[in-house]
Design goal:
It is a single chain. By secondary structure, the chain is α/β, with parallel strands linked by helices. It has one domain: NagB/RpiA/CoA transferase-like (Rossmann fold, 3-Layer(aba) Sandwich). It is built from 4 helices and 11 strands; from the N terminus they run ααβαβββββββαβββ. It has a 7-stranded mixed sheet, with helices on one face. Helix 2 packs parallel to helix 3. The chain is globular. 32% of the residues are buried.
Length: 197
């Protein structure tokens, strides 16, 4: 696979890896998600400061069990909010209060109340993905929200952690200049550390 892949090829890659994820049985998905929670907790348990996560949609790995566990140990958790198409995400505090939630234009639950933080203010950011490679390249859903949000974060913060099933691993994905690389990828069988380059 070459670095210069056209958008139709990216769309085909997205379809391919979405289908691979959907092919997992409910039992496989539950067992994998449980293992991912353990690995994610081991990676982030000692981290101080606000941590961004996400609300799973469709067949994504659900970080909610880890979020509950992290909050029980005192972690400060923040979730993404889509402001407008083409804008960077902001992050608001996670709450169990049903009045705290709204659906964004993509149908994803997000906090509607509370202060907002930019990605640069987070100590770590847990990110969903469709595919990944060992170089930290992430193929997302195609909206570019995370890439835009991390564009102003050239330093080590936030630590960028992708959650995936093993079946989402690609040999090599195309990386465009604006793609924000991951520092770690956590799957049911491993926690990869990726050099950010």
């Amino acid at each position: 696979m070459t670095a210069a892949v056209a958008d139709p090829d990216l769309a085909a890659l997205r379809r391919h890896f979405r289908q691979r994820r959907l092919a997992l049985s409910a039992e496989q998905r539950a067992a994998a998600a449980s293992a991912v929670v353990e690995r994610l907790e081991a990676l982030l348990a000692a981290l101080a400061g606000p941590i961004g996560s996400y609300m799973a949609t469709g067949s994504e790995i659900d970080p909610a069990p880890w979020m509950r566990r992290a909050r029980a140990r005192g972690a400060e958790l923040w979730l993404p909010v889509v402001q407008t198409a083409g804008a960077a995400l902001v992050f608001r505090p996670w709450s169990d209060d049903p009045d705290h939630w709204q659906r964004n234009t993509h149908g994803i639950a997000e906090p509607r109340l509370g202060p907002s933080l930019p990605a640069a203010a987070l100590s770590a950011l847990v990110i969903p993905l469709l595919a990944f490679d060992v170089h930290g390249t992430r193929l997302g859903a195609g909206g570019g929200y995370y890439d835009r949000s991390l564009a102003d974060c050239p330093g080590p913060r936030p630590l960028r952690v992708g959650l995936a099933f093993d079946c989402q691993r690609a040999e090599q994905l195309p990386r465009r200049p604006w793609d924000a690389p991951l520092d770690h990828i956590v799957t049911e069988t491993e926690s990869l550390t990726c050099p950010r380059s």
